[in-house]
Amino acid sequence: MTRKAVVLLSGGLDSSTTAAIAKHEDGYEVTALSFRYGQRHTIELEQAQKIANHFGLKHFVVDVNISQWGGSALTDESIDVPTSGTEDGVIPPTYVPGRNTVFISIGLSLAEAIDAEALYLGINAVDYSGYPDCRPEYLEAFQNLADLATKAGLEGRGAKLKAPLVLMTKVDIVKKALELGVPIDQTWSCYQGGTEPCGVCDSCRIRDKALIEAGRPDLASRYAQEHLGQQ
After folding, report:
1. What is the pLDDT of residue 171?
2. Is 16 annotated as a binding residue?
3. Which residue did the predictor score with more confidence, 192 or 173?
4. Pick from 7, 3, 4: which is nearest to 119 by CA?
């Protein structure tokens, strides 16, 4: 019997690596799920499709426009994307209110509809930007809710939330991506809109630093490559 899983695929490095783990390490038939939620960096959806094509995944894109009420630098053009780095203990303006809760809920709906036994998430609690919905305790609580809230859960066959990267460093994620053949150059992690990564937003900084430390500066943003001699 085919074992199925759903992967929330943003088109970024983490979610793409998670998709590769689900397919190549854990042996699932993977369905990818992406969201058009009003993000300024819609280019990530184009990259998500490329990643899905690369791994031969069925791919759904769902419209759920949570940008209508703003509240985040990723969905509200009046809020600047920070470029000064992260600050310990401070949730940055790139946090999108309720985003993971909405996405996981829809992911569980898809998982139940296709009888998938797992829902994979690319969240990370180590080298991350301070988001409250990227923590292991959040996932544990959501798993309890999922088991109570779905028919499949009540029958003991509900999808299990899996976050294989949650306690990995960004460098280790890069190494895992390289190991599993993730086309890193086709992933998109930048918070800004545009046609190439800005290299200065929090996400770019974390990604570029990891790529350089993992010995692949050639995959870092142009900004990082141009400033390597100054770092």
Report:
1. 96
2. yes
3. 173
4. 7
84 annotated among ligand-binding-site residues: no
Please state, as a whole number, how many other Cβ atoms lie within 10 Å of the Cβ of residue 110. Answer: 17
pLDDT at 230: 45
Q: Tell whether residue 75 is among the known ligand binding residues.
A: no
User: Is 67 known to sit in a ligand binding site?
Assistant: no
> Which tens digit of pLDDT belongs to each residue from 202-219?
899 999 999 999 999 999
Q: Is 19 annotated as a binding residue?
A: yes
| CATH for 103 | 3.40.50.620
201 is in an annotated binding site: yes
| 17 annotated as belonging to a binding site for a ligand | yes
Domain assignment present for residue 111? The answer is yes
Task: Report the percent of the chain where pLDDT is more than 70.
Answer: 95
In contact, 126 and 168? CB cutoff 8 Å: yes
- Condensed to tens digits (0 to 9), the pLDDT of residues 37-73 reads 999 889 999 999 999 999 999 999 999 999 999 899 9
In a domain, 206, yes or no: no
> Which runs of consecutive H residues, i.e. helices, occur in 56-126?
99-113
Number of structural domains in the chain: 1
* Backbone phi, psi, residue 7, to 5°: -120, 130
Residue 176 resides in a domain:
no
Q: Is 12 annotated as a binding residue?
A: yes
Residue 194 falls inside a structural domain: no
Q: Which residues contact 209 (CB under 8 A, 6 or more apart)?
A: 170
Residue tagged 């001699």 (tokens)? 229
**Is 134 flagged in the annotation as binding?**
no
Find out whether 11 is annotated in a ligand binding site.
yes
Domain hosting residue 117, numbered range? 4-169
Q: Is 221 among the annotated ligand-binding positions?
A: no
